[in-house]
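Lab notebook, design round three. We kept the backbone fixed and only want residue identities now. Task for the bench partner: fill in a sequence for the structure below.
Input structure tokens:
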């Protein structure tokens, strides 16, 4: 059995799309051992972190299990959803979370990102400790030992480049597939009446309740002006906006966030911005990297302009083909050009 493995080496680097689809179909099928939601949440966590890998495609367990712990906390504590295929029993990670909740007297209403950073770290470490033994080897085994190399002592995985490219190309459909199967599992093993709109819950379980922590850094950079239209934003009307829509990236990285006015934020919604804005964000990120306090942030350390360009191109390839286009955009181009002179 591969699920207790501590180290796994990638067997083959090259796989065809058909072979990789086969592996995913297997993971989601009844043939795979899915007594808990762990595998679904691990895939969801990998997809969320596709653009948090370094240039060797390595991903630290602390980043990976931050996503995992957040998703689990929000499902178990916030939505009260059972994660194992037996009534009256709990998945081990569920028990860990309940214990932390009781110890710290945390109400069910609190979502993960509202917890104090000490408690968040405690949860992430406890979840990581449990999952690295039970979960890392499981997906590895289900993919015929091809999806990644992993090392539980180094607490790191390295994605197979063929898999990585596949997940970039099919990110949206893989997200849908994972959310759908996760919701299906939860529907089967929860009868407490909390299952209405399960898919909607699962789709939004990773979303932060607030982007305030980014606002502080961004607002000083944009000086009260909207990134898209360049107009001065009235008090209280500025929003932190995902340059590449959240519904695609499913993650919040400083390098993909800008400040927008309510109008632009609303009309942009799930759309992309024209390419000229991409270059402006890349320039902005160069400035960020030159600032020591920002440079050492975890999300900035794995940033590169080619990563953002890839993300932009892959979002189009995944069906994000609508663009925010207003007259003001033209004004912005002039505004930014003037800014540089
Ligand atoms: Zn605007």
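Proposed sequence:
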């Amino acid at each position: 059995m591969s699920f207790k493995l501590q180290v796994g080496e990638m067997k083959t680097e090259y796989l065809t799309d058909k072979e990789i689809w086969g592996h995913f179909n297997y993971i989601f099928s009844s043939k795979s051992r899915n007594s808990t939601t762990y595998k679904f949440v691990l895939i969801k966590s990998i997809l969320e972190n596709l653009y948090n890998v370094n240039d060797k495609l390595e991903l630290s367990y602390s980043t990976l299990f931050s996503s995992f712990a957040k998703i689990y906390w929000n499902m178990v504590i916030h939505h009260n959803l059972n994660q194992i295929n037996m009534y009256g029993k709990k998945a081990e990670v569920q028990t860990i979370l309940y214990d932390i909740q009781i110890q710290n007297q945390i109400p069910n209403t609190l979502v993960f990102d509202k917890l104090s950073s000490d408690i968040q770290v405690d949860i992430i470490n406890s979840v990581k400790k449990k999952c690295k033994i039970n979960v890392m080897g499981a997906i590895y085994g289900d993919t015929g030992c091809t999806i990644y190399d992993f090392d539980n002592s180094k607490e790191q995985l390295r994605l197979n480049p063929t898999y990585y490219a596949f997940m970039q190309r099919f990110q949206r459909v893989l997200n849908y597939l994972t959310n759908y199967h996760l919701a299906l599992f939860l529907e089967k093993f929860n009868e407490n009446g909390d299952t209405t709109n399960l898919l909607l819950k699962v789709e939004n379980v990773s979303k932060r309740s607030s982007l305030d922590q980014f606002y502080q850094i961004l607002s000083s950079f944009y000086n009260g002006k909207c990134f898209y239209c360049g107009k001065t934003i009235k008090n209280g009307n500025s929003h932190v906006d995902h340059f590449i829509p959240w519904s695609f990236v499913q993650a919040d990285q400083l390098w993909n966030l800008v400040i927008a006015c309510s109008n632009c934020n609303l009309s942009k919604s799930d759309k992309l911005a024209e390419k000229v804005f991409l270059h402006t964000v890349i320039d902005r990120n160069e400035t960020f990297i030159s600032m020591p306090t920002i440079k050492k942030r975890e999300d900035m350390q794995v940033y590169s302009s080619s990563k953002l360009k890839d993300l932009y191109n892959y979002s189009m390839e995944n069906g994000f083909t609508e663009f925010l286009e207003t007259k003001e955009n033209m004004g912005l181009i002039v505004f930014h050009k003037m800014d540089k002179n």
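Keep this in mind before ordering anything: The longest helix spans residues 61-78.
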